[in-house]
C-alpha cells in the first residue's frame, strides 16, 4: 500500500496529552506519515520524510476522524411532519418510532441499503470515520436480522436494538415480546453479525427488569452492552448500565447526583446526544456536572428520522460548546476519544503512532472553528483507514 505524507499542518490534534500541548495534545507546524493503514510517523514539518503521496495542509488543522458511537441509519420514511408539529408545540413522547417501524418493514433491502449509504456518505464528508449503526425499526426476527445485515455492510460496529419499543402487535404483551427478543431474535441478530446489544430503557418502552433480562442474555451470548438511558425521565437506565458494566449509557439527559457519581466511578461512558435535545426542544444533558465529576463523556449524533435527523458531528460539537458549557477541547475529545471509549476501541479517536489512520483536514487553522463557525462545512479532506476519501 502507498504511504501518505500530510505536511504543513498548522495544528495537529493528536488527542493524547502525552503527544503535545494541553488536553488535546496539540502539535504545531507538524507532519504525519500514514503507512499500511496506520499512523507511522509524527514530527515537525521540516523533518518530514518522503512518502509515495503528499498532501499539503496549508497551515490548516488536522484532527482524528470523528467517532459517532450512536446512530440509527437503517430505516425507511421520514417524519418531517412530526418535527413540524413538535416545533408548533406538541411534546415528544417517543411514540413516533412505530411510524418508522411500519415504513421499514414495508421497504425492500435495496431501499434500506440506499438510505444507509446516503447517510453514511453524508457523515463521512463531515469527518465521521467510524460510525455505530443500530437496528430497531424492524422488530420482527426477520426484519431485525436484515437491518443488521445491511448495517454490517457499512460498519463493524453494529448494534441489535430489538428492544427499541414494543411493536403494536405485542401491545399489552410485553413479556411475550421480551421472550422473543431474548430468544429467536437474539439468535438471528448474532448470525447477522451484531457486536452490541442495546435497550431503550424508558417509561413507555422497557423497564429496568425487562432491560436487565435482555441485556444479560445478550451479554451471555457475547455481545457488548449499551443502553438508551435517562432520556425522557430520571429513570433506572444509568444505574443499570453501571451495574452491567455497559460500554455506554446514552442520552443521560435527566440525571440525579447519584447517577452522575455512579458514572464517574465506572468504566461506562456517558454518551450525550445533543441533536436529540435540539430537535425535540428539550433541556440539554448536564455535561458540565459529568465532566467535573470525572465521568468519561462521548458525543454522538443519534441520527434517526424522528428525534435527531442529523449526521453532523461538527454540529453536535457546536451544540455541546454553546448549549452544554463544554470547552471546544472537551467537545472535540468527546467526539473522538470519547466515542472510541464508548465502543471500547483504543485504535481510533486519536492520532499517535500506531493508531488507525482516520483523520480530517479542516478548512480552518484550529479545532476551535468547529464551534466558532457552526453550520459551515469545514471538512476539506478525509483519510479513512489509511486512504484518501
Ligand atoms: Zn438512539
From TrEMBL:
Keyword Cytoplasm: yes
First-listed, main subcellular location of the protein, grouped into a coarse class: cytoplasm
Annotated ranges, domain Amidohydrolase-related: 62-386
Catalytically driven reaction(s): 4-imidazolone-5-propanoate + H2O = N-formimidoyl-L-glutamate
Chain residues that bind N-formimidoyl-L-glutamate: 137, 304, 306
Keywords: Cytoplasm, Histidine metabolism, Hydrolase, Iron, Metal-binding, Zinc
Binding-site list for Zn(2+): 70, 72, 228, 302
GO biological process: L-histidine catabolic process to glutamate and formamide
Localization terms from the record: Cytoplasm
EC number assigned by the record: 3.5.2.7
Binding site residues for Fe(3+): 70, 72, 228, 302
Protein residues bound to 4-imidazolone-5-propanoate: 79, 137, 164, 231, 307
Family of the protein in this entry: Belongs to the metallo-dependent hydrolases superfamily. HutI family.
Function per UniProt: Catalyzes the hydrolytic cleavage of the carbon-nitrogen bond in imidazolone-5-propanoate to yield N-formimidoyl-L-glutamate. It is the third step in the universal histidine degradation pathway.
Name of this protein: Imidazolonepropionase
Record gene name: hutI
Amino acid at each position: 500500500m502507498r504511504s501518505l505524507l500530510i505536511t504543513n499542518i498548522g495544528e495537529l490534534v493528536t488527542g493524547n496529552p502525552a503527544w503535545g500541548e494541553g488536553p488535546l495534545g496539540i502539535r504545531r507546524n507538524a507532519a504525519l506519515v500514514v503507512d499500511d493503514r496506520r499512523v507511522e510517523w509524527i514530527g515537525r514539518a521540516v523533518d518530514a520524510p518522503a512518502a509515495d503521496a503528499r498532501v499539503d495542509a496549508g497551515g490548516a488543522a488536522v484532527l482524528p476522524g470523528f467517532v459517532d458511537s450512536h446512530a440509527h441509519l437503517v430505516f425507511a420514511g421520514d417524519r418531517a411532519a412530526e418535527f413540524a408539529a413538535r416545533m408548533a408545540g406538541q411534546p415528544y413522547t417517543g411514540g413516533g418510532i412505530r411510524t418508522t417501524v411500519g415504513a421499514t418493514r414495508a421497504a425492500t433491502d435495496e431501499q434500506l441499503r440506499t438510505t444507509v449509504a446516503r447517510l453514511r456518505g453524508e457523515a463521512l464528508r463531515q469527518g465521521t470515520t467510524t460510525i455505530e449503526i443500530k437496528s430497531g425499526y424492524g422488530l420482527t426476527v426477520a426484519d431485525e436480522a436484515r437491518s443488521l445485515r445491511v448495517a454490517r455492510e457499512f460498519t463493524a460496529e453494529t448494534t441489535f436494538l430489538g428492544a427499541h419499543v414494543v411493536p403494536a402487535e405485542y401491545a399489552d404483551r410485553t413479556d411475550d415480546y421480551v421472550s422473543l427478543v431474548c430468544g429467536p431474535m437474539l439468535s438471528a441478530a448474532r448470525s447477522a453479525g451484531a457486536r452490541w446489544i442495546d435497550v431503550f430503557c424508558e417509561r413507555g418502552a422497557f423497564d429496568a427488569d425487562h432491560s436487565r433480562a435482555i441485556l444479560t442474555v445478550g451479554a451471555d451470548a457475547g455481545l457488548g452492552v449499551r443502553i438508551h438511558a435517562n432520556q425522557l425521565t430520571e429513570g433506572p437506565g444509568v444505574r443499570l448500565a453501571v451495574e452491567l458494566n455497559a460500554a455506554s449509557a446514552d442520552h443521560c439527559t435527566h440525571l440525579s447526583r447519584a447517577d452522575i457519581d455512579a458514572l464517574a466511578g465506572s468504566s461506562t461512558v456517558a454518551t450525550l446526544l445533543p441533536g436529540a435535545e435540539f430537535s425535540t426542544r428539550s433541556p440539554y444533558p448536564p455535561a458540565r456536572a459529568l465532566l467535573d465529576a470525572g465521568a468519561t463523556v462521548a458525543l454522538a449524533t443519534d441520527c434517526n428520522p424522528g428525534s435527531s435527523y442529523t449526521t453532523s458531528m461538527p454540529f453536535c460539537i457546536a451544540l455541546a460548546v454553546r448549549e452544554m458549557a463544554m470547552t471546544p477541547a472537551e467537545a472535540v475529545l468527546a467526539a473522538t476519544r470519547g466515542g472510541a471509549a464508548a465502543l471500547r476501541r483504543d485504535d481510533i479517536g486519536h492520532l499517535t503512532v500506531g493508531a488507525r489512520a482516520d483523520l480530517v483536514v479542516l478548512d480552518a487553522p484550529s479545532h476551535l472553528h468547529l464551534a466558532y463557525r457552526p453550520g459551515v462545512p469545514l471538512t476539506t479532506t478525509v483519510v479513512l483507514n489509511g486512504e484518501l476519501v
